[in-house]
Design a protein that fits this description.
The protein has 14 helices and 10 strands. By secondary structure, the chain is an alpha/beta fold. It has 2 domains: 184 residues, D-Maltodextrin-Binding Protein, domain 2; 91 residues, D-Maltodextrin-Binding Protein, domain 2, CATH 3.40.190.10.
Length: 327
């Protein structure tokens, strides 16, 4: 009888020790190497799709779930509800999330380290007589109100000597609808990201202003996480960025290899599938203080923020190599 009790005790002890061995200090390790990332299926996020296809996440010891969303609003609501750990967004969205009570921080740029990355263009309708920025005064311009789209439109116009208040802004949040209104002649011009700007050109539109032709990138794309995720899953985030850097390098150096994946996952319009090229991506880095400050200056002027946040409140630079602040 004693022998049976001893065997039972030893087996129970062994099971307890094995369970404990699967945990790191604090008993939380199982979840630390997993991340749920919200993103919209567009070209900005293509390196993440390549990393998934090539098994780079698993090779790095990560379990990453890429959660697709059809709109920025759905994506942001999921982050607020803690259904995802982080998302690919922009500086405007980051500040608005924080204002709304969801403390988030930027850990890296994913696009926009150079002016050539991530094209936004102000395009006129086919057949428009407008050929210069100053001719847009009094014209209807399609934008998405209180978003990075409107910020880019305002800064492009101001840079060309046109006061944003002198044009008739028309709020059209959905990009496909904005494009169709432009092509149908119901808007004189519209601010569109690629590949929609390229498609508008192909169908007879004229590019009046292009943010890849100026000396700064206005439409920077950023990777953000909730602060609690940064504290609990810091090592996983660091690995994620290392994987992203590897995938970005693969996309930039071997675009033909991933052509079909790009057309499918980035939702490239059928009319462009044979000609539209995938963009190049830089290594991870954080946005410059001047860029974060300028976006917030615009937001304060628009009364989207009561006051600007400090750089440190919006950006955590510890996940990228020192000196990788975008200049």
């Amino acid at each position: 009888m004693r022998g049976k009790r001893l065997i039972f005790f030893l087996l129970t002890l062994l099971m307890v020790l094995m369970a404990a061995g699967c945990r790191a200090p604090g008993g939380k390790a199982r979840g630390k190497e997993s991340l749920k990332l919200g993103l919209i299926p567009v070209e900005d996020n293509f390196p993440f799709f390549v990393a998934e296809q090539e098994g780079l996440f698993a090779r790095a010891g990560l379990k990453v779930e890429l959660v697709p969303f059809n709109s920025a609003r759905e994506r942001d609501l999921a982050l607020q509800a803690k259904s995802i750990d982080g998302e690919v967004a922009d500086i405007v969205a980051t500040a608005l999330l924080r204002k709304g009570g969801t403390p988030v921080k930027i850990v890296s740029l994913t696009m926009g380290a150079t002016p050539s990355e991530g094209r936004f263009a102000l395009v006129t309708r086919p057949g428009s007589a407008v050929s210069r920025p100053e001719q847009l005064r009094g014209a209807t311009v399609g934008i998405s109100e209180n978003t990075i789209i409107e910020y880019v439109a305002d800064r492009l116009l101001q840079g060309a000597g046109v006061e944003p208040g002198s044009v008739q802004k028309v709020a059209v949040p959905q990009i496909p609808e904005r494009l169709q209104l432009l092509l149908g002649g119901r808007l004189e011009a519209a601010l569109l990201p690629d590949p929609f700007a390229t498609l508008a050109e192909k169908k007879g539109g004229r590019v009046i202003l292009d943010d890849t032709k100026i000396d700064r990138n206005l439409s920077q794309v950023v990777l953000i996480f909730r602060e609690e995720t940064i504290k609990e899953k810091g090592p996983a985030i660091k690995k994620l960025l290392q994987v992203y850097a590897e995938a970005a390098g693969l996309v930039s150096s071997h675009p033909d290899k991933y052509r079909e994946l790009f057309i499918t996952r980035a939702r490239i319009p059928a009319e462009l599938k044979d000609t539209y090229l995938s963009p190049k991506f830089s290594s991870p880095g954080v946005p410059a203080k001047t860029e974060v400050a300028d976006v917030q200056e615009w937001m304060v002027a628009k009364k989207l923020l009561p006051a600007a946040y400090s750089y440190e409140e919006l950006v955590d630079p510890t996940f990228v190599p020192a000196g990788r602040e975008n200049k």
